[in-house]
Model the fold of this input.
Amino acid sequence: MTTPTTTTHEGLRDIVASPSRICFIDGDKGILVYSGYNIHDLAENSTFEETVFLLWNGRLPRREELESFSAELRACRQLPGGVISLIRTFPRDIIPMDALRTAFSALSAYDPEREETSAEANRRRAVRMTAQCATLVAAIDRIRNGNELLESRADLSHAANFLYLLTGKVPTSIEARAMDIALILHADHEFNASTFAARVTAGTLADMYAAITSAIAALSGPLHGGANEAVMKMLLEIGSIENVESYVEKKLGAGGKIMGIGHAVYRTEDPRATHLRRMSEEVGKVKGSTRWFDMSKRIEELVIAEMNRRNKAIRANVDFYSASTYYMMGIPVDLYTPIFAVSRVSGWIGHVLEQYHNNKLIRPRSEYVGPSDLKWAPVDQRS
Ligand code: COA
Done:
């Protein structure tokens, strides 16, 4: 077919681009499922390592499989020296997402199986990419702050080791579990913008580094992964609970958007927000102040009330409470989006492997709305 026959769907909303076995979302009912398992079940009972295995294999691992998969991930955490040297050349004030995009792309030059594109080689590459993404984010932060890089600890989980590499302190069990749950909740979300970007790139049969680099670029925008940072900046700008009401009134009154609220698919509460709300409160209590949680809760109540008045089903999304949770854990605000990538790299990879397995080049059409039948004129005769 050479001429598109259907109507234009701006933003491809509600267009199904491909079958997938990885993730199911019911936006009206607020249901999120990874390969058959409800996100609530996974957030309450699973670990990030187990969730990654699920996303890549379509089933939960048996004990020995989980042990060997976790060991494989632990064994691949170290970064190539060349990538560390590259990060050291970045200006100290580089935006961490820019650093991550560039450094992740550079990993390809050091891939020990660079020319190998078999399914087995891609699976081994998937493990390296997932393990190294966490180490990269920690290294980017430590290097920009002039801190020494730390050796990964084989006795720590993916989440706990990441926090250790970042902060230099072994996290408390609450901190480690909060990060583990955050990683589970962010791991996949069907054909969101960054995953779709990864699949578009993989669909050209470009390699996995190219696909994941595309995804990191797409994640960086404030309408996608960048929203969690925007939420914390908003909370810091508001400053205290007394200022919440006037801020929300002014923002919404001027037709502005409150970051971390609303979703392209959910028309009810984002099920991930339910867990992050609880975690924000819990971590706040353990750290001795629920100030940021309380402010978030008040903003949420006011926005929902106003949206109900406007007849709009707009609720908190995954970014709204992850902001205050990370803040209470002492994580720098500009690392929130890179941390999203530390988790989502697992989902991106699952989708890239699925795309390779049954590939079709992704190539939509546009509806041409520009001028037609114009006559070319020499450059000096143009008006
Ligand atoms: N604050 C205030 N109003 C909002 C809003 C928000 N966060 N999100 C959506 N709305 C309003 C829009 O202004 C629009 O109003 P209109 O119908 O009068 O034009 C209506 O709700 C629908 O919004 P729209 O932007 O068309 O929804 P969408 O489904 O296309 O977009 C988002 C979804 C995520 C882009 C949007 O909700 C948003 O920008 N949220 C803030 C950024 C964010 O948190 N992103 C992370 C997503 S996980």
User: Anything to note?
Assistant: The CA atoms of residues 74 and 157 lie 8 Å apart. The mean pLDDT is 96. The pocket of coenzyme A is lined by residues 223, 227, 257-264, 312, 314, 317-319 (CB under 6 Å).
